[in-house]
């Protein structure tokens, strides 16, 4: 009987697939009608809700299908299925809540169910401790979000979210800043951003399907939270804070990712880096880009986690390859990077060079340039073949990304604060130059020449000591 799939898993899987299909069909219908649907005063379904419905529905259904076979024979498979559907429902509830109380409740439930998934194997002492350790972070995040919402609710004299955000002028500026900072910290904790990252590195006791759900959905909570409260972040002038913190987090996470030998830890650091980029996009005023980034990252990271076992089987220890780029290679890397940036600007209308949209374009240029370098150094193809592959890659990739970016922007069109670029300041320009310089120094591997820096970065990414080998005999 133990090897049979629990009935609850058999029921949940088709329901999630049906929910995904219905949500996907509703997106074009909503786009045609362009009308926010209210169910009473405290439930609201808009473009963002439908996007998250479709995304979470797909990941939930996919992981449910995967785990039905992957966890077959696992003692707690039924419990895993129940916790997974509880988490999915709490996310869906979060994006339709139009009440500060309902938002806080769903945020708490998201953390609770994720902590339960981390420790679903109750027979494993490390898993139990990792669950408790993570839940302490999630509960702290809920407290901070509760304080932020309490300030907004008290000064606006309303629990209704859209009323609060449309009447921020009723709230003193000092209270707006405090509420925004509390909200930012709450989002950072839930998304495992530095210095609140250790719960994620300690959560590797979770089954692989739970890790995929965590990295494809739960970690993205900050991006959704910041988008929901975009008007608060703009009105409180905290966007620059998000931009700078996101930049530092992205760089640090990219550095420490290169030091990891454990596949899951490497993926965890990669997720933290991507969430840092997401925070940067919010700080630039492009909340639509952040949502597009989160969805694409979710697809990519779910695939990597679900195939992590294959990676372990196939990989062999290799020496670190040093970057040794020839002049002709550097020329094509720069050329294709710039061409990709120009194509992105033309397809998305981001043609301004004096506001924050230039940073989005630079990130695209770096991504295309890095991909081009990886292709042109591949020795199994001729030089001509490598050029053709590089051109095909950046054209198809940029076109698809631009189409997806524009589609998300159109669906989120009912929000006045989804796209809010602003003029570049000298500080932002200086930080951007520092960010780019640090990125290239990291890629060149110069940090390996400093044992002190290596040890510091390695220690920064150690999980909680009680979640590894604590209860072994």
TrEMBL record:
Protein known as: NADH dehydrogenase
Recorded superkingdom: Bacteria
TM segment ranges: 15-33, 45-67, 87-113, 133-155, 175-200, 212-234, 240-259, 271-296, 327-346, 358-376, 388-412, 424-446
UniProt keyword list: Membrane, Transmembrane, Transmembrane helix
UniProt membrane topology term: Multi-pass membrane protein
Cellular component per GO, a single term: membrane
GO BP terms in the entry: ATP synthesis coupled electron transport; electron transport coupled proton transport
Localization annotation: Endomembrane system; Membrane
Source organism per UniProt: Psychroflexus salis
Xref: PANTHER family: INORGANIC CARBON TRANSPORTER SUBUNIT DABB-RELATED, NADH-UBIQUINONE OXIDOREDUCTASE CHAIN 5
Recorded coiled-coil stretches: none
NADH:quinone oxidoreductase/Mrp antiporter transmembrane domain span: 97-315
InterPro entries the UniProt entry points to: ND/Mrp_TM, NU5C-like
Molecular function terms, GO-annotated: NADH dehydrogenase (ubiquinone) activity; NADH dehydrogenase activity
Chief place where the protein resides: membrane
């Amino acid at each position: 009987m133990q090897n049979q799939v629990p009935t609850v898993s058999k029921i949940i899987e088709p329901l999630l697939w049906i929910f995904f299909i219905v949500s996907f069909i509703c997106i074009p219908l909503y786009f045609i009608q362009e009308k926010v649907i209210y169910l009473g005063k405290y439930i609201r379904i808009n473009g963002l809700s439908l996007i998250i419905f479709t995304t979470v529905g797909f990941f939930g259904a996919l992981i449910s299908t995967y785990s039905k076979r992957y966890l077959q024979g696992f003692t707690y498979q039924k419990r895993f299925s129940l916790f997974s559907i509880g988490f999915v429902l709490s996310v869906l509830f979060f994006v339709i809540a139009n009440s500060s109380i309902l938002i806080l409740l769903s945020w708490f439930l998201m953390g609770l169910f994720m902590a339960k998934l981390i420790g679903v194997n109750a027979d494993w002492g490390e898993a139990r401790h990792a669950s408790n350790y993570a839940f302490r972070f999630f509960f702290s995040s809920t407290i901070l979000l509760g304080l932020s919402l309490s300030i907004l609710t008290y000064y606006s004299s309303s629990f209704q979210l859209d009323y609060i955000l449309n009447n921020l002028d009723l709230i003193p500026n000092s209270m707006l800043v405090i509420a925004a900072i509390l909200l930012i910290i709450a989002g950072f904790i839930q998304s495992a951003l530095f210095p609140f990252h250790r719960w994620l590195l300690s959560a590797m006791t979770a089954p692989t399907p739970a890790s995929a759900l965590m990295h494809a959905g739960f970690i993205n909570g900050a991006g959704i939270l910041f988008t929901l409260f975009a008007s608060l972040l703009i009105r409180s002038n905290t966007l620059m804070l998000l931009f700078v913190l996101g930049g530092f987090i992205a760089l640090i996470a990219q550095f420490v990712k290169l030091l990891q030998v454990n596949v899951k830890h490497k993926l965890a650091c990669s997720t933290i880096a991507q969430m840092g980029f997401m925070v940067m996009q919010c700080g630039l005023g492009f909340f639509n880009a952040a949502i597009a980034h989160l969805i694409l990252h979710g697809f990519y990271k779910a695939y990597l986690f679900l195939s992590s076992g294959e990676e372990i089987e196939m990989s062999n220890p290799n020496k670190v390859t040093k970057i040794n780029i020839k002049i002709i290679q550097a020329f094509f890397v720069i050329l294709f990077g710039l061409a990709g940036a120009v194509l992105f600007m033309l397809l998305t209308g981001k043609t301004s060079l004096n506001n924050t949209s230039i940073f989005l374009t630079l990130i695209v240029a770096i991504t295309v340039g890095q991909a081009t370098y990886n292709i042109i150094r591949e020795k199994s193809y001729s030089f001509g073949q490598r050029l053709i592959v590089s051109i095909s890659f950046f054209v198809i990739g940029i076109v698809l990304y631009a189409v997806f970016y524009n589609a998300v922007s159109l669906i989120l069109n009912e929000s006045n604060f989804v796209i809010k670029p602003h003029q570049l300041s000298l500080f932002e320009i200086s930080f951007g130059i520092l960010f780019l310089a640090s990125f290239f120094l990291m890629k060149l591997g110069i940090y390996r020449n400093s044992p002190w820096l290596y040890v510091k970065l390695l220690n920064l990414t150690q999980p909680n000591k009680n979640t590894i080998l604590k209860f072994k005999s």
